[in-house]
């Protein structure tokens, strides 16, 4: 008699638990499809393994001066960004990114006619000015306030340690002498066809 009494009390709880578990597991998450689309086997990585660490770029950013505060904003592999603030308002975003992960970013500099500190420079729309160091590192200033003009962007681009950033590329090349990257345009090696002995 005792087991039957327990079953009567336990049965509704078990049924409720089953409904709860199935309801939670069957509800689709709105990010599931995005996750599937962006993390498939064999898909290329978003950031190249050869990209510099974002922290490596910190030393090349301008320092705070006068009324301007240069504040760290974002850092990840191949990228670092700082905010340029004045009186508590953000005037611009300063950034350095390693274009090894996005070679298409380099193409816009191939036809550049302007130079800043000897490096090819382009305007991207009406709010961004960028330059390319050693064909690899893109340095940009993005206006966040209408009062921050193109002349201001050029001025702040020249405050970066561009020479130090250029030497970073040289250092990276010297340290990789023992490990050479494969040539991209080289045809694949063919296996020799063995002829039967006569």
Report on this structure:
There is one protein chain. The chain is of the alpha+beta class and 198 residues long. The chain contains 5 helices and 7 strands. It has helices spanning 2-26, 32-38, 104-107, 150-157, 162-175; strands at residues 68-76, 79-86, 89-98, 114-116, 119-124, 128-133, 137-143. Strands 1-2-3-7-6-5-4 form a 7-stranded antiparallel β-sheet. A hairpin with a 2-residue loop joins strand 2 and strand 3. The longest helix has 25 residues, at 2-26. The N and C termini lie far apart (92 Å). Residues 37-44 and 172-194 have low confidence and may be disordered.
Tell me, rounded to a whole number, the average pLDDT: 78
Percentage of residues in DSSP E strands: 15-25%
Order of helices and strands: HHEEEHEEEEHH
The termini sit apart by: 92 Å
The helix content is 25-40%
Radius of gyration: 28 Å
Q: How would you sum up the major sheet?
A: 7 strands, antiparallel
Sequence stretches where pLDDT stays below 50 over 5 or more residues: 37-44, 172-194
Tally of DSSP β-strands: 7
């Amino acid at each position: 008699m005792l087991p039957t009494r327990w079953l009567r009390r336990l049965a509704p709880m078990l049924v409720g638990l089953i409904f709860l578990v199935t309801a939670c597991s069957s509800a689709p998450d709105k990010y599931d499809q995005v996750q599937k689309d962006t993390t498939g086997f064999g898909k290329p990585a978003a950031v190249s393994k050869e990209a510099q660490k974002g922290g490596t770029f910190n030393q090349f950013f301008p320092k705070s001066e006068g009324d301007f505060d240069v504040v760290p904003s974002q850092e990840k592999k191949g990228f670092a960004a700082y905010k340029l603030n004045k009186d508590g308002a953000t005037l611009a975003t300063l950034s350095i990114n390693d274009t090894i992960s996005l070679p298409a970013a380099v193409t816009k500099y191939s036809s550049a006619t302007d130079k800043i500190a000897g490096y090819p420079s382009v305007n991207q729309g009406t709010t961004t000015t960028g330059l390319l160091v050693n064909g690899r590192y893109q340095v940009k200033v993005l206006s966040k306030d209408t009062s921050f003009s193109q002349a201001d962007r050029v001025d702040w681009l020249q405050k970066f340690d561009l020479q130090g950033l250029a030497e970073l590329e040289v250092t990276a090349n010297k340290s990789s002498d023992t490990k050479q990257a494969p040539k991209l345009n080289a045809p694949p090696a063919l296996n020799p066809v063995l002829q039967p002995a006569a």
